[in-house]
From TrEMBL, chain A:
It is found in: Cell membrane. This is NADH-quinone oxidoreductase subunit D. Belongs to the complex I 49 kDa subunit family. NDH-1 shuttles electrons from NADH, via FMN and iron-sulfur (Fe-S) centers, to quinones in the respiratory chain. The immediate electron acceptor for the enzyme in this species is believed to be ubiquinone. Couples the redox reaction to proton translocation (for every two electrons transferred, four hydrogen ions are translocated across the cytoplasmic membrane), and thus conserves the redox energy in a proton gradient. It is a peripheral membrane protein. Coiled coil: none annotated. The keyword Transferase does not apply. The gene is nuoD. Residues 1-20 are annotated as: Disordered. NDH-1 is composed of 14 different subunits. Subunits NuoB, C, D, E, F, and G constitute the peripheral sector of the complex. It catalyses: a quinone + NADH + 5 H(+)(in) = a quinol + NAD(+) + 4 H(+)(out). The keyword Cell membrane applies.
Automatic annotation (TrEMBL), chain B:
The lineage of its organism: Bacteria, Pseudomonadati, Bacteroidota, Sphingobacteriia, Sphingobacteriales. PANTHER family: NADH DEHYDROGENASE [UBIQUINONE] IRON-SULFUR PROTEIN 3, MITOCHONDRIAL, NADH DEHYDROGENASE UBIQUINONE IRON-SULFUR PROTEIN 3. The keyword Iron-sulfur does not apply. It is found in: Cell membrane. NDH-1 is composed of 14 different subunits. Subunits NuoB, C, D, E, F, and G constitute the peripheral sector of the complex. Its EC number is 7.1.1.-. This is NADH-quinone oxidoreductase subunit C. NCBIfam families: NuoC_fam (TIGR01961). It comes from the Bacteria. Its main location: membrane. It comes from Mucilaginibacter rigui. InterPro entries: NADH_DH_suC, NADH_quin_OxRdtase_su_C/D-like, NADH_UbQ_OxRdtase_30kDa_su, NADH_UbQ_OxRdtase_CS.
Length: 403, 167
């Protein structure tokens, strides 16, 4: 029989063990690899490897008309793709100086806030799963499903939505969609309250998350963090409030902040953001009623795809359709940076246009990519199980990380 | 504090760097300045630490390739002053022969991966970077794929040539 060395706590540890956390570890919720050096259960050092699902979106975008870039943005943060879609549309509209009618802005706000709720449901639910509470996740998942049904009613698809158009929406929200939204904002608050009752003062959850991976404001800002995890440290930077787009300045909402940037604070900030999103949606529904009900896009025939029935029967519409799809419309020489508050933070689009049919250069400032780089340095000295819940609370989405 | 006007920013940068930082545009209100790679670290440090400006937030670092220009590769920094809610864009152009530029990781930890990404796709070498490796592409890749000489489609394809569309 072979002799295996048996270590006890009193033995001096001379070697660290290496653990490959990922690329396809079930607890990492995506394809991330971290090679960790472990001293027992404590992490000594770690190296992140990313890029497993890199799809060269920036390169592809240089060969696609503006119109065909929307589906690429779907696949960045696929948990809240409408925000990416709208962010891209607004970038192009900013470049073209297109002013949106208020009703379109409000419709967009509704969709973006629903997407934010859907994203936070997944993140906070999964955080529960990783700390050993499956119930909250399954319970909340039903309401993400309802949000997806709203998307489905509006644009026909659920995950990679490709929702809206440059210049507005492809069609008006129908009565069923409005009813579903109203039903959602009635049915969801009691559930969210119950979810909070399950977690917020739960002793086990608090023991597992409080003071885990606490980050100071200076660290967070130095690492260019944004979104809920930055606000959990107490910095009230929210693009919606700082540089309102899509008429966010018309809404009354608060930017929730945390105290010490630990996992518990991030959880609370996300929960509170869901409440604020509900508030915004409710206000938007009221505001929409005061706007003319047949407006769902701006009057920009050169950029907004005409409805299909006109394309088949009307020559001007056919010409515009062809020009838009082939990228034949003239665009200015311009350089635009437009940022929206994605579910994970500041989602920026840096667009350099030379007047051609596709962008000369398009760069996505992807919050997951920038937020995740602190993961390996901050894991040092942490317990392996804490590192797992830290990763869930960062809500890193592989599609956005690798672009 | 309110937003810093572009004129004021340009004035401050001109005073400090004796005209070596020039305004190249202000598309959609976002001031764009250009400087040299010798000065870029000082400019970034000044913008970050000056009490009135406080561009403490590094939004993004990326690059762009203009094959027709003498200085082909442009490195682009986006900074954000959270207290005054002002953004600024800084550009440095480099020649293909000398793609070295000082790192910004000494000012912001977050510059680390942004610079690695820029290196990965454009081959810009950030001097002083602690760990300048490829990040999204495979390690043994030999080219820098975001440069314009790498076409996405088959270059022999003619059905999308401009002359078919009267351009």
């Amino acid at each position: 029989m072979q002799n295996h060395p048996v270590y006890t706590d009193n033995d001096p540890q001379t070697e660290y063990s290496t653990l490959n956390l990922g690329p396809t570890h079930p607890a990492t919720h995506g394809v991330f690899q971290n090679v960790l050096q472990l001293d027992g259960e404590r992490i000594v050092s770690g190296v992140s490897t990313i890029g497993y699902i890199h799809r060269a979106f920036e390169k592809i975008a240089e060969h696609r008309p503006f119109y065909q870039i929307t589906p690429l943005t779907d696949r960045l943060n696929y948990c809240s793709s409408p925000i990416n879609n709208m962010g891209w549309h607004m970038t192009v509209e900013k470049m073209l100086n297109i002013q949106m009618p208020k009703r379109v802005d409000y419709m967009r706000v509704i969709i973006m806030e629903l997407a934010r709720i859907a994203d936070h449901i997944v993140c906070n639910g999964v955080l529960g799963v990783d700390t050993g509470a499956f119930t909250g996740f399954l319970y909340m998942m039903e309401y993400r499903e309802e949000i997806y049904e709203i998307y489905e009613e509006i644009c026909g698809s659920r995950l990679t939505t490709n929702i809206g158009r440059i210049g507005g929406f492809e069609r008006n929200f129908n009565t069923i969609a409005f009813n579903k939204i109203r039903k959602f904002i009635q049915k969801f608050p009691p559930v969210l309250r119950e979810f909070e009752a399950l977690f917020n003062r739960n002793r086990i959850f608090i023991d597992r998350t409080r003071d885990v991976a606490a980050v100071t404001q200076e660290q967070a800002l130095s690492y260019s963090w944004s979104g809920p995890i930055l606000r959990a440290t107490g910095v009230d930077y929210d693009v919606r409030a700082m540089e309102p787009y899509s008429s966010y300045e018309d809404f009354d909402f608060e930017v929730p902040v945390g105290e010490n940037g630990d996992v518990y604070n991030r959880f609370l900030v996300r929960n509170e953001e869901m409440w604020q999103s509900l508030r915004i949606i409710e206000q938007a529904l009221n505001k929409i009623e005061k706007e003319p009900s047949d407006i769902f896009h701006a009057d920009v025939p050169a950029f907004y795809l005409p409805p299909k029935e006109e394309v088949y029967n009307n020559m001007e519409a056919l010409i515009y359709h062809f020009k838009i799809v082939m990228g034949e419309v003239e665009t200015p020489n311009a350089e635009v940076y437009h940022a929206v508050e994605g579910a994970n933070g500041e989602l920026g689009f840096y667009l350099v246009n030379d007047g051609g049919r596709s962008p000369y250069r398009l760069h996505f400032r992807r919050p997951s990519f920038i937020n995740y780089q602190m993961y390996a340095p901050m894991s040092r000295g942490m317990l392996l199980s804490d590192a797992i819940i830290n990763m869930s609370s960062l809500n890193v989405i592989a599609g956005e990380l690798d672009a | 504090m309110g937003k810093i006007s572009n004129e004021e920013l340009v004035q401050k940068l001109t005073d400090k760097f004796a005209g070596q930082v020039t305004q190249t545009g202000a598309d959609y209100g976002l001031l764009t300045v250009e400087t040299s790679k010798e000065l870029i670290h000082d400019v970034l440090a000044y913008l970050k630490t000056d009490a009135a400006l406080q561009f403490i937030y590094l939004t993004d670092i990326t690059a762009i390739h203009y094959p027709e220009q003498e200085k082909q590769i442009g490195v682009i920094y986006h900074l954000h002053s959270l207290t005054t809610n002002t953004r600024i864009r800084i550009k440095v152009y480099l020649t293909l022969e000398d793609l070295h530029i000082p790192t910004a990781t000494t000012l912001w930890d977050g510059a680390n991966w942004m610079e690695r990404e820029t290196y990965d796709f454009f081959g810009v070498i950030f001097d002083g970077h602690p760990d300048l490796r490829r990040i999204l592409n495979v390690d043994d890749m030999t080219v820098f794929p975001m440069r314009k000489e790498f076409p996405l489609e088959d270059p022999n394809r003619i059905d999308k040539k401009d002359y078919f569309f009267g351009r």
